[in-house]
Amino acid sequence: MDLLPHIKELSRRTPSKILFIVLDGVGGLPREPGGPTELAAARTPNLDELAARANLGRVTLVAPGFAPGSGPGHLSLFGYDPFLYQVGRGVLSALGLGVELGPGDIAVRGNFATLNPDGTVADRRAGRPSTAENRRVLAKLREHIREIDGVKVELFTESEHRFVLVLRGAGLGAQVHDTDPQKTGVEPLPARPRDGDDEASAKTAAILNEFSARAREVLADEPVINGVLLRGVSARPRWPALSELTGLTPAAVASYPMYRGVASLVGMTPLEVEIGADPDAPEGKLQTLRDHWNEFDYFYLHFKKTDSTGEDGDFDGKVHKIEKFDELLPQLLGLGAEVVAITGDHSTPSVMKAHSWHPVPLLLHGPNLRGDAAARFTEEEAARGALGDLHGTQVLPLLLAHAGKLQKFGA
Fold first, then answer.
1. CA–CA separation, 83 vs 87, rounded Å?
2. d(CA 251, CA 269)
3. Among 66, 222, 261, 289, which residue's CB has the most CB atoms within a 10 Å radius?
4. Strands 106-115 and 162-168: what pairing?
5. Cβ pair 277, 159 in contact under 8 A
6. Nearest residue to 223 via CA among 122, 109, 111
7. In this predicted model, what pLDDT tens digit does every residue of 226-244 receive, in sequence order?
8. Could you tell me which residues are beta bridge partners of residue 252?
9. Cβ distance 124 to 110 under 8 Å?
């Protein structure tokens, strides 16, 4: 059910502020049967104290059994039903980098990869190279690949192993399957149109296959980054913005382009974050919040490394990232938001090294809470919370209601 038209009808402006924190991929699973998840294993005295005076629940982002991508997971949390509002990863990454996408332009998310001599994938992320290394290799590709069959090819560094490919030309379609097989030991997939009769998407697929082949030739002398994997082929959709739906003045504090992109797509203002060697370091994000606190009434704050460590299968590393967030929490609470919520856009259990379908815990602190049996911000405790089991699209109206920004429905 699309709640956005009803939210638009009932929303009102108030001076209260909402701080919405997304710990990417924070949900997990035990490392061994009967053991704790990453959240339960972490030492989190500040989260524990907040949980004791908050309400908790569990959130399914898409549907039971569906493992969400980061895009659908975030859209769900922002109130946009991911089945109704669909967009590819390429557009999200491009928008996050500030790339202008016009009608007919196609954006694609790329991974640098390591391929074996037989052409099979050895490492889907090429050892997670530095962003500086990404820029070097991408410059090499730009020098040799600028146009394919009359279509302009533009390449942009995202971060680490990630890059964005934008195609600009006539007659292109976006309904194209990924080339990333999502596993090692097999060859990259050919780009194929989803519908064999779709000539525009067939043209895009042919160009992407040619790009992949040329990239292998150009990178043949590279010791690690010698191939590319492509996914999220997409064109920019046009959707109603959160500000017109809710009356909010929403801002995004995120350092990774993809998350800045999904925030931009729903009309948030992406704020600049001063980052050093670690894009997820909290100091720059905290300072950005402080600098802009009086300008907006809704802040989406994103932390990535709880997901990256899960995808790397690093249980202890994910625990450490959760504990680092816990150390930051008192300063975030000190900003004085009337409503604070903490959740994830999906689960990324370290034992699976991938996104999973498991619900994520949600913590909600603000006025007008009920009694709650949950004592910690963990998956198990969230199941005991007063919020119960929710769909991701129900999070936004909850935040608005507790902030006094949602009027009564019906007579």
1. 10
2. 4
3. 261
4. antiparallel
5. no
6. 122
7. 999 999 999 999 899 999 9
8. 270, 300
9. no
Query: What spatial distance separates the first Cα and last Cα of the chain, rounded to whole Å?
Result: 21
Q: What is the CATH number of domain 4-87+239-402?
A: 3.40.720.10
Write down the H helix ranges in 147-298: 199-218, 242-246, 257-265, 282-292
User: For residue 267, how many C-alpha atoms fall within 13 Å in the half-sphere facing its CB?
Assistant: 18
Question: Domains of the chain: which residue ranges?
Answer: 4-87+239-402, 101-234
| Closest by Cα among 136, 134, 87 to 110 | 134
User: Residue 236 in contact with residue 285, Cβ under 8 Å?
Assistant: no
- Written as one string, the DSSP assignment of 50-115 is HHHTSEEEEEESSSTT----HHHHHHHHTT--TTTS---HHHHHHHHTT----TT-EEEEEEEEEE
Q: What is the 3-state secondary structure (H, E, C) of 267-335?
A: CCEECCCCCCCCCCCHHHHHHHHHHHCCCCCEEEEEECHHHHHHHCCCHHHHHHHHHHHHHHHHHHHCC
The reported pLDDT for the residue numbered 281 is 74
The CA-based dihedral angle spanning residues 387, 384, 382, 11, taken in that order and rounded to the nearest 10 degrees? 0
Instruction: Establish how many alpha carbons lie within 13 A of residue 106's alpha carbon, considering only the half-sphere containing its beta carbon.
Output: 27
- CATH, range 101-234: 3.30.70
The residue among 62, 1, 4, 78 whose CA lies nearest residue 406 is 4
What CA dihedral angle connects 303, 304, 309 and 315, to 10 degrees? 30
240-282 residue pLDDT tens: 999 999 999 999 999 988 899 999 999 999 999 986 656 677 8
Map residue 390 onto helix, strand or coil.
strand
d(CA 226, CA 111): 11
Pair 350, 310: CB distance under 8 Å: yes
* Dihedral sign of CA atoms 347, 348, 349, 353 in order: positive
| DSSP letter, residue 394 | G
Task: State pTM to two decimals.
Answer: 0.84
Judge whether residue 110 has pLDDT over 60.
Answer: yes
